[in-house]
């Protein structure tokens, strides 16, 4: 059967034409459709932004308050200063987090042990001793009469559990590495622009349209709600951007305004946590050293 003939006989063509004609008779029809789409997706968009800002805020708190992460940075700094005694780099008081990603590239005199392995081993032992001296550690030890090697094994086991747990402790800091801050800022700006267009449509373009009274009333109620939500989002944005700048300055010093990615610090943390996880897995497979303080492959 001829498709065109079927289309004509069933009246589909007439129905479509009537629909378009009726649609065009409505004042600002397409603007109304756009307004309804904006209203329909508003809660989803704002929820996504709120969750992203919350994740950023938690990430900043994690980095700033993590005792173990700060101790790890301190251990890296001390080891770096010991290795650079007598040079222009000796006696440093701080370093940029980028340096963490280079620790696996620096190898000791044995040609095998990396600086990252060495720093982690020192951290594992010191944390293991600290925990073993605590009430929890003492309860965990099965016997007081333990050999030196057994004690070292306890220190190593408890210390490894703690150091390996740092990756979980910085969960939000790692997740934040996937966030594109420019996309968040643009999304918030687009929502603000959409709200401005909606207000113009309701207050100006449809202000005298008596037939659209229900639509106008519905949208005015939504405008009140969305204005409050946008105000909260803007406050969230300002607060989070301040936290990001503060945490970056805390670890990196003065921040350049030309920084391509303000969240780069979280990318570094994520990549370093991946390296740390790998080292911890390797250390679990190693045998306990025969002495508590084996000679350092780094001078």
From TrEMBL:
InterPro entries according to UniProt: FH2_Formin, FH2_Formin_sf, Formin-like_plant
Q: By its UniProt entry, which Pfam families does this protein fall under?
A: FH2
Boundaries of every FH2 domain copy: 1-299
The GO cellular component terms are:
cytoskeleton
GO terms (BP aspect): actin cytoskeleton organization; actin nucleation
Q: Which Gene3D superfamilies match?
A: Formin, FH2 domain (1.20.58.2220)
Query: Recorded GO terms, molecular function?
Result: actin filament binding
Please give the SMART domains that the UniProt record associates with this protein: FH2 (SM00498)
Q: Identify its protein family.
A: Belongs to the formin-like family. Class-I subfamily.
Q: PANTHER family, from UniProt?
A: FORMIN-LIKE PROTEIN 11, FORMIN-RELATED
Name of the protein: Formin-like protein
Its taxonomic path starts at:
Eukaryota, Viridiplantae, Streptophyta, Embryophyta, Tracheophyta
